[in-house]
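fyi for ur records
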Amino acid sequence: MTGAEKPQNGGKKMDRRDLEALYSTHAPRLLSLCLRYCGNVADAEDVLHDGFIKIIRNIDTFTDRGAGSFEGWMKRIMVNTALNYIRDNSKSRKLFEPEPAFERLVIVEEEDGYFESLAERIDPKVVMDLILELPHGYRTVFNLYVFESYSHKEIASALNCSENTSKSQLSKARHWLRTRVSEFMIKQEAAK
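which gave:
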């Protein structure tokens, strides 16, 4: 089984080997996705576990739409599972506090490619560590917008907030990351 294809089992239930192959092939990448949302390994592993149960229970409902569609299907399940986990665990504390000034402010989209070019300037593991340090609401919106390509309207619907709150959280996340990357790069230069 290649990494991008659904196990071929002729419509019958998957056996233990199929399940192990599915898990070993996709779990590392999907755990990274869960970690981006959860911020810590223990919660990410819980989300991965819950997501894989959903994948296994619903694998017969998957409709192949070409190369990569099975991975995309699994990724959507994991993102939705992570968002459910965040919502369920944010009931006692709000995911983010809306700020009245930002509710009225229309944030201008950044088009300078700053975050896309980070991989060329800084180790991707460092970038991931910085993303994990983002405050919870910032991190959730940043992940949905940057990695999942959700629109602000889709984010607002998924997180039950306004589009302007989504925009302000993304703007704050970008500002926070720029500051942290600058601090990291200054430290790197000083260490040389």
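The CA atoms of residues 40 and 141 lie 17 Å apart. thats all i got for now
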